[in-house]
Amino acid sequence: MNYSWRIDTDQASAGPRSFGKFKLETDPVARLIGNTPLIEIRRIFHSEHIQILAKLESFNPGGSIKDRPAANMIRAGEESGELTAEKTILDSTSGNTGIAYAMIAASKGYRVRLALPANASMERKRILQGYGVDLELTDPLEGSDGAYVRVQEIYEKHPEKYFYPNQYANEANWKAHYQTTGPEIYRQTNGAVTHFVTGLGTTGTMMGTSRYLKEQNPAIQCISFVPDSPFHGLEGLKHLPSTIVPDIYDERVPDEGLEISTEEAHRMVVRLAREEGLFVGISAGAAMVAALQVARNIDSGRIVAVFCDGGDKYLSEEFWSLY
Ligand code: PMP
Fold first, then answer.
1. Is 55 a catalytic residue?
2. Which atom of ligand 1 is nearest to the CA of 282?
3. Does the annotation mark 283 as catalytic?
């Protein structure tokens, strides 16, 4: 049997220990985050003058785009001295940030406590249990706001016990995308991206990536989307008109905003699996629907849509057999 494995030996940040000629890294899991593939959609959409490219964030080690901000918020907490070994990382999440915190925290020896709406997918809850997270489920009718309010209560009682990154208000959230997602997209398209499409949850992806892209070329159009109703199935996204608006959100950043229905997103998830070989999550299906709407209104361009996670966390959903 051929067991192949690899340790980077050329990183200046490699840890102090060594193993033979290999240096062992201090931060091996966090180092796997980012540099995700960008691939062309070829069958669902085909045009001579317009290209739709998908940024496949399921390639992150925790399986979603949220590895990027979680790692950056933990790093910022360590650097500021707020996060110390005896503190527990506490936050509210729709699941993916929690999985990312849990993964990074386990690799660094921190404990994690999370509040999550009870209707988050079963797979997310199981993964979090797998990582050994202290999980509190909040009222599904209150959505992500219920989990947010609960975490604030827990934190206010014992602030000394916790490191509370508060992903909705933490600058290190959007800066992770300013420092990584944006530059990767610009580089992977050789600067030829004309439109950027992503959904709004904490809004970190939109804020950070758009700010970077617009600094490179102010003509790049940044298009956000949200679910079309308060009760939706686009996990990870927020219906901003009816929910608490994240502190990091600046409505001047997106050039345009779209609304996408859960049913359209579900249908598209199934099509992406069967026609493109891309097994992606529901907000990725919604991103593809949004990208197609953008494509309909332009004559030429290169549209980049973020596919935030993979389909495996949604296997228990019924829509797979409906279409
Ligand atoms: N899609 C999924 C699957 C997510 O988990 C999230 C994060 N909540 C988003 C989209 C939205 O990303 P952001 O928080 O950066 O707005």
1. no
2. 3
3. yes
| Number of domains within the chain | 2
Does residue 193 sit within a domain? Answer: yes
What are the pLDDT tens digits along the chain (323 aa)?
444 443 443 433 444 556 666 655 667 888 899 999 999 999 999 999 999 999 999 999 999 999 999 999 999 999 999 999 999 999 999 889 999 999 999 999 999 999 999 988 889 999 999 999 999 999 998 888 999 999 999 999 999 999 999 999 999 999 999 999 999 999 999 999 999 999 999 999 999 999 999 999 999 999 999 999 998 889 999 999 999 999 999 999 999 999 999 999 999 999 999 999 999 999 999 999 999 999 999 999 999 999 999 999 999 999 999 98
Could you tell me if residue 79 is inside a domain? yes
The residue assigned the tokens 């999980």 is 135
Angle at which helices 67-80 and 96-108 cross, to 10°: 50
Q: How far is the CA of 267 from the centre of ligand 1 (A)?
A: 19
Active-site pick, 66, 175, 238, 313: 66
In single-letter form, the type of residue at position 161 comes to: K
Pocket of ligand 1 (CB under 6 A): 64, 66, 94, 96, 199-205, 235-237, 281, 283, 308-309
For ligand 1, the distance from its centroid to the CA atom of residue 238, given in whole angstroms, is 9
Find the domain containing 114 and state its range: 67-163
Q: Is 229 exposed, middle or buried (0-12, 13-18, 19+ CB in 10 A)?
A: middle
149 phi-psi bin (left φ>0, alpha ψ -120 to 50, beta other):
alpha
Q: How far is ligand 1, taken at its centre, from the CA of residue 18, in Å?
A: 37
> 0.90 cut: is pTM over it?
yes
